Amino acid sequence: MRSYINLLRTFINFDRIKKYVFMKRILEKLKLGKLFLFFDFLYYSMPVKTSIKTLIEINQLDLSSIQTDKIDYTCRMYMSHRFNILGSGWIASDFNAAPLGINGHKYKVDSSKRPYRDEKILKLVSKGYSLIDWQRDLKSGYLFDIKKLSTDIPTKLPVGVDIKMPWELARMYHLPQLSIAALSMKNKRKDILLEFRNQVFDFFESNPIGYGVNWNCAMEVSIRAANLLIAYDIFTKQDKYYILDEEFKEYFTKKILEHGRFVLRNLELSITTNKNGNHYLSNLCGLLFISSYIECKETKSWYEFAKKEFLKEFDKQFLPDGGNYECSTAYHRLSAELAVYSFALIMRNGEKVINHLLTKLNSVAHFATMTIKPNGDIIQIGDNDSGRLFKLNLYGEFISQELYEKQFNLMGYNKIYREDYIFQENELQVDSLIANVFAITNYRYIKSWSNKNPLEYSFIKSLLNNSAVHHNDVYNYNQINSSLIYDESISDYKHQIKTRIEFPFNDIELKDSIVEYAPHFGLVTFTLDEIKIFIRSVADLEVMHNAHCHNDFLHFEISINEKNSFSDQGSYIYTPLPDVRNEFRSIKAHNCPFHGKELNNFLDSFNTEIKVKGYIVDVTSYSITLVIKYDDILHQRKFEIYNNSITVTDISNKPFSFECTEFVYESLGYGILQNNINNTNSLVINKFNQMSTCNISDR
Question: Is there a single domain that holds both residue 323 and residue 204?
Answer without folding.
Answer: yes
